[in-house]
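User: quick one, fold this
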Amino acid sequence: MTGVPVADAAVRELAALSGRGLSLLRQWVAEHPRLGVARALLVLATSGGLSDLELREELVIAHRDALSAGARSVSLVHGVFLYAHRQYRMTADHLVTHFARWPADEVAALILDAFHACGDTGYRAHGDALAERQYALAGPDSWVWASRMAWTRVEQGRVEEAYELAEHALARYPRSGLAAHARAHAEQEYGAGPASTAFLDGWLAADPQAMQFKHLNWHAALQSLACGDFADARRRADEVLDHADVGMRSATNWRLLLAGQTPARRCDLDHVRTLLTAPGGMAEVFHTFNLALALAVEAATDDLYALAGRAAGDDRADYREVLAPVVRALADVTAGRPRSAVDLLTGLGKRTERVGGVRVEREIIQDTLARALIDTGQHADAAALLHHRTTTRRHHTYEDLLLIPRPALTTACDAVPAR
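Assistant:
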């Protein structure tokens, strides 16, 4: 964009989700304070820590400065503006126009997640097709688009293609965070176990500041669950996930409890309640779902029923039709009413996709249904539900444990002191 080496390095490291990305972006902006795209990308990388007013002010300046750099810069800044303000449908619509003018633009690929963030299957399919088209135009040497295609394929359930594309991207740029992430998802489907944790640990050791450090450790914890190394899963949750990582820690602990295992350090219940009542507590379905998991880990049944009631009365269809019954099912499991949980979750079927997140994150709903089926004596149905996983995954100790009858989950929760 400017021919300045720091610009190329900053964009590359940001695309790679590298720990160096933020410092390089700051350097780029310091050297070129009137470069709109540089400022916009810095805002994109730091938006989580900015107030709405700061976000708008910074992006207005970026847009003003981009005007002198040409149409592509203006278009990129506008796309970041929409994305940072969570206007995902508008971002997606804008990207269609942007890629029509500037095919295979690797900078614009940074906000391509807008299509999935819309929560609309039509937009998701359109985004997948758009990514495939850009990869074809960019050619196989583009590790950025190869990484993006690996991610697209893994979410489509085309695991073998996803793994091959991830390896292809990593061969061209070993520090591609998106490719490493896509490989982790593919290996979850394979049940790779220790082979996956070894890869992730090696990849993270080269860049402990990587943007995905915590999330990829969470993936490693899932692989440890898969092969029955519960001590390692707990260690990762305790040592890597801190007070703010409520979702990943709770998703780990709920799985441990479903499998009859001692959980890792638990969340503070008052903190979870505060998050739920905060202005953004129910802003997104998936975020609220993760907070519900935290309540489930604490066996906070009354809180779960109250949250289910709030979701059922929400104006948004995904909250009423999907989140409400899922949360109520979690409440029923903690209350020792597995039959009601079975009815609620079985009735949802594939609609659970509307909870948001990605495949492996939503899998925990299926896990909960399997546990509830076992608790109601429906072993054959539970086994059928997990058949694909137990027959295709190399390591599936976790799934095997889900299918073993044991005392009610509420007893397991109550027996484990918070740490």
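User: anything notable?
Assistant: The CA atoms of residues 301 and 331 lie 5 Å apart.
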